[in-house]
UniProtKB/TrEMBL annotation:
UniProt cross-references to InterPro entries, sorted A to Z: ACT-like_dom_sf, ACT_dom, Beta-grasp_dom_sf, HD/PDEase_dom, HD_domain, NT_sf, RelA/Spo_fam, RelA/SpoT_AH_RIS
Keyword Hydrolase: yes
Cited Pfam families: ACT_4, HD_4, RelA_AH_RIS, RelA_SpoT, TGS
Cited function: In eubacteria ppGpp (guanosine 3'-diphosphate 5'-diphosphate) is a mediator of the stringent response that coordinates a variety of cellular activities in response to changes in nutritional abundance.
Pathway note: Purine metabolism
Species of provenance: Ancylomarina euxinus
Descriptive protein name: Bifunctional (P)ppGpp synthetase/guanosine-3',5'-bis(Diphosphate) 3'-pyrophosphohydrolase
Gene3D superfamilies in the cross-refs: 3.10.20.30, 3.30.70.260, Beta Polymerase, domain 2, Hypothetical protein af1432
UniProtKB keywords: Hydrolase
Iron keyword on record: no
Residue ranges constituting the TGS domain according to the UniProt record: 399-460
């Protein structure tokens, strides 16, 4: 507790006045009095407490309330709940106290926002449990989720005051769950800001480089946008259309994501410029007709790309988004994306669920259907919080398709959904009894991937029952949860059987099924948990003949060394099992140094991404204090940061010159005599790098190549790639990040 200064009071009151100015919907004496009461109640409860940044704690709930009011457009009860959202968690006040002073509805919202403070099973992630509890309130009031997003946005805006380990944890969780959740609720601006802020802390160098390139091209971009906008404005004004035409620049995260996914340069993102035409609709003329009229006028100026037209008016996105998108060839030979929408559509695009619910009071929207699905999943949540978190995240799909029933009804599904997903979308019983489907009147299998516009008829049989492999066919959370519910008992029986089979077999050859043996088997078969291991033995998918060799196999150093250990001498002593099992506690508050002389017992390199010295990495500490090193951009690392952030630690490389690490580079260019010799000469002679394998293919005058090589660190690899790209005829050289696919 600290003393509140006069300067603190002035800062608090100034923040509160700023909040009041944002409360446009709370303009009656009663609502203003309620907000005033909540402000003083929260101020008194948090008095003397400060945030990590040093400012009075009450500033945080005030800022969250302002985000709720100004940026999302929530009403009085939500603003009051935002002001009080940390009172129950951080002070002696209870939910009953909140209900007594502010009513049951506000108390229910605050309760949903209050984190769990009890003790949990060691295997359970606190983060995942907190998120599950918050979601369970969804069946009562969606404002809980929206306020949680507002709370997270303010935490991200003030994340710089937190230590690096906390920054990675919170940023990972934000990118993994909260940004997709904001997208699903139609909060586009907030979603984009959450993604950008997450990128700023997870990959600061990438963020800085893209931001700098955008700044350097800003003047050129403004010129291009102005050249695009002016003719459109004139044409629409000449046709008596009242409108605003604004620039819609891509977010830094979306640029980074496209660069990472498509392995392209920022200059190659062809639809980087984007504008939005927002028109005031004429009365008695459908907005959809007016959008197409504007489209017609714009295509008189700029030629459209036919395959890049998106009609989100006839079939709105699941988050309520409506607009007409087109890509056209603008001045200077630049492609530009043009979004056409009415004032109403634009408000829904910016404010999402809240604006959508104001305009749609009668019919059930896609968002309402999604909420129904979520509530259905929440009725029987997974016992494992992490599995539940994964199931829920499946429902946060951002890319959607629309498919038709035989009667012409539209169903919205995530991209890559199968015919089996569609069956479960219709009804659980239809999904459980599904034996096949007809897509566009053609018979197909259950795992056929659907495309937007398909018409699907499901074929069923009373004798059909769900099968375990069906889980590999579906992508929707609804389908997965229904399939799991059907054979959950069978799964438990097979897990118990597998455990017993494994234990008896090991005993028959003089071994014990302990944690060390289980760990070796899980690593060999690449399972993330022992239940999956036992399940595969219980269902006879794995052979017992291999077990002895796997369990008895000694651990080998995964690093390839240029110099053998005996060259330097070795006085390593064999460690007893007891010594191996009692590893010292890792101090997560200090950076974990990846020293070259460390044995593999100190840390291991993740097989999913195989980072090399110089890569941005994080460490994950498991229950046995083993440290696994992942690339920060690795999808598995992102998942761990979001669900088990307390086990994440900062990791830094030291100098690495003795050990070499496997890397893969991909090359392509114009095929010419001697180019392969030029490439291999630079690698082996100029840079003295060992190659494990080399593969080249040539077709139609173009060649593609993959080279597996051993390098000390990213600096050596980057220098080599810079030298290679100078070879005449070589068009592109890049490092393969997902090394598993090519090993």
């Amino acid at each position: 507790m600290t003393v509140e200064t006069q300067q603190d009071k002035e800062l608090i009151l100034a923040s509160y006045q700023k909040l009041l100015a944002s409360c446009k919907r709370s303009n009656t004496p009663e609502t203003k009095a309620m907000i005033e009461k909540a402000f003083h109640f929260a101020w008194d409860a948090h008095r003397g407490v400060r945030r990590k940044s040093g400012e009075p704690y009450i500033i945080h709930p005030i800022e969250v309330a302002e985000i709720a009011a100004k940026e999302i457009g929530l009403g009085t009860k939500s603003i009051v709940a935002a002001l009080l959202h940390d009172v129950v968690e951080d002070t002696d006040y209870t939910v009953e106290d909140i209900a007594h002073h502010f009513g049951d509805k506000v108390a229910a919202i605050v309760d949903g926002l209050t984190k769990i403070s009890g003790a949990f099973n060691q295997q359970t992630s606190m983060q995942a449990e907190n998120f599950r509890k918050m979601l369970l309130t969804l069946s009562d009031d969606i404002r809980v989720i929206i306020l949680k997003i507002a709370d997270r946005l303010h935490n991200m805006r003030t994340l710089s005051s937190m230590p690096l380990r906390k920054q990675m944890k919170i940023a990972g969780e934000t990118l993994f769950l909260f940004a997709p959740l904001a997208h699903r609720l139609g909060l586009y601006k907030i979603k984009s800001e959450l993604e950008d802020l997450s990128l700023m802390y997870e990959h600061p160098e990438d963020y800085k480089n893209i931001a700098e390139k955008i700044r350097n091209k800003e003047a050129e971009q403004e010129l291009v946008i102005d050249q695009i906008i002016q003719p459109i404005k004139k044409r629409l004004n000449d046709n008596n259309i009242i409108c605003t035409v604004i620039d819609r620049p891509r977010s830094i995260f979306s640029i980074w994501n496209k660069i990472e996914n498509h392995k392209i340069k920022i200059e190659d993102i062809y639809d980087l410029p984007a504008i939005r035409v927002i028109f005031k609709p004429q009365e008695d003329v459908p907005e959809k007709n007016q959008c197409w009229n504007i489209y017609s006028l714009i295509t008189d100026i700029y030629k459209p790309k036919p395959e890049r037209i998106r009609d989100w008016m006839s079939t709105p996105k699941a988050n309520g988004y409506e607009a007409l998108h087109m890509t056209a060839m603008g001045p200077f030979g630049k492609w530009v994306e043009i979004q056409i929408c009415s004032n109403r559509m634009n408000e829904i695009a910016e404010r999402g669920f809240i604006a959508h619910s104001r305009y749609n009071t009668d019919s059930e929207s896609e968002l309402d259907k999604w909420l129904k699905d979520v509530r259905e999943i929440l009725e029987n949540p997974e016992s494992d919080a992490l599995a539940f978190l994964d199931e829920f995240r499946l429902n946060l799909f951002s890319q959607e398709i629309q498919v038709f029933t035989p009667k012409g009804l539209i169903k919205t599904l995530p991209k890559h959904a199968s015919a089996l997903d569609f069956a479960y979308e219709i009804h659980t019983d239809i999904g459980n009894q599904c034996i096949g489907a007809k897509v566009n009147h053609k018979l197909v299998s259950l795992n056929t991937i659907l495309r937007s516009g398909d018409q699907v008829e499901i074929l069923t049989s009373n004798k059909q029952k769900p099968k375990p492999e069906w889980l590999e066919y579906v992508v929707t959370a609804k389908a997965k949860s229904k399939i799991k519910a059907e054979f959950k008992d069978d799964r438990k029986r097979l897990i118990r059987a597998g455990n017993k089979i494994l234990e008896e077999h090991l005993q028959s050859i003089g071994l014990i099924l302990n944690s060390k043996a289980t760990k070796k088997l899980m690593e060999h078969y690449q399972f993330t948990n022992k239940d999956e291991l036992f399940l595969n033995f219980g269902s006879s998918k794995l052979k017992l003949e291999e077990i002895e060799g796997i369990v008895k196999k000694k651990s080998k150093n995964k690093f390839i060394k240029y110099w053998k250990l005996q060259l330097f001498g070795s006085d390593e002593k064999k460690e007893t099992p007891d010594k191996l099992d009692s590893k010292p506690e890792i101090d997560k508050k200090k950076p974990f140094l990846l020293e070259e002389t460390m044995s593999e017992e100190k840390y291991k390199i993740a097989t999913c991404c195989k980072p090399i010295p110089g890569d941005d990495v994080v460490g994950y500490v498991d229950m046995a204090n083993n440290v696994t090193i992942h690339k920060r951009k690795c999808p598995n690392a992102l998942k761990l940061m979001s669900s088990q952030g307390d086990r994440i630690l900062e990791a830094n490389w030291t100098s690495h010159r003795l050990m070499s690490f496997l890397a893969i580079i991909e090359l392509n260019g114009i095929d010419k005599i001697g180019i392969v010799n030029d490439i291999t000469s630079i690698i082996s002679k100029d840079h003295h790098v060992n190659m494990r394998s080399i593969h080249f293919e040539s077709h139609d005058g173009v060649f593609e190549g993959l080279i597996h090589l051993y390098v000390h660190n990213t600096e050596d690899l980057n220098n080599l790639m810079k030298k290679l790209i100078k070879i005449k005829g070589l068009d592109n050289v890049r490092r393969i990040e997902n090394i598993e696919e090519y090993s």
